Amino acid sequence: MKRIITAILAIMLFATAVPSVSAAAHTYEDLQKLYDEVANYIFRAEKTLQVVLTDDEDEFCSVPVLAAKKTLLSQNYTDADVNNAYNGLDDALSMLILIVQRNGQLTSQKTLNLIAALSTRILDDNYYSLIDAETGDIIRAKAKRVNDLIKDHSSVSEADFATEIQDFYTVMYDAAKFKITVCNDYFSTIVFTDVNRDAWFYDAVNYVYNNGLFKGTSDTTFEPYSIMTRAMFITVLSRFAYADLEGYETSFADVPADEYYYAPVGWAEGCGILDWINGDAFEPNEPITREEMVTCMYNYAKFIKFDSSDYDMSMADMITDMDEAGEFSESALRWAFSVGVISGYGNGEIKPKGTATRAEVAQVYINLQTVLGVA
Fold this sequence. Notes:
2 domains, mainly alpha, single chain, elongated
């Protein structure tokens, strides 16, 4: 089932006793009404969408739908949240309508009427405010010409008219996609109902999700407080490294070849990232400790020949609980603290034996990206 259809099926009813957002261009009630309109359209067009909607379009258009749903269910939405959710949802609906029409006859009267109506909906003042003035003038002129031709195209051949309509269809599709991108950039991780915009880890989750390092635990949840396992961590590290996993195998007896983490573990083992493990057991489902996590990152930095000479390693003298660390991790912990991959918990504590949540690991990856200077 398409993701956007699943998102709509997940919820249809909202509490109605919610105050309007007075300062927004659109109110909460406006958003709720539009969500119902989108839901009804998707239900009516479900069979067609299952066929014509590409996976990329499905993923793309589902973000405004999920963002609107979260905003409607949230107790802490802002005026900007409501307005951006409304605009994104409206543009997603316009794009879905265009997608449903594209395999049909664009010059049929019914489709021409839709194109004329959508042109004012998509190419609105908000759109023109987002593009440069010169491009805006060109598109305005094209929109006027096409809408005039829709009323009367006797002055051009049927072939030229069809070309004009197809070109204008592309303009509207691209405009709707551009506007949805603005919405998606604003909401970023709002697809996750358990990641609030004011959470300390919001930016970190935004980074790891949008860069493909982490996936959600479902379409709508991230589980920021869940503990990170060894298997999860090594998989994320392989994504961070853009590792080519082809051909990698592992000698660990407890890493089955059919598990998602088999190749990432093989890559990490082959690159020396797991040289701290003794024996033939990886223990993939065990929570990764902070010292194990840092040691993997330290070994990765060495693997890519990262130069740490500009950093003051004496900063690590501030660590007050290094005696709790295993001998294998001391150099890594000193490095990570000195270069800023980890910052500790105050009073010099770094808790080497402590576990790490998905949100904490997300933040550490932002720190690592900053230190290593990689995209």
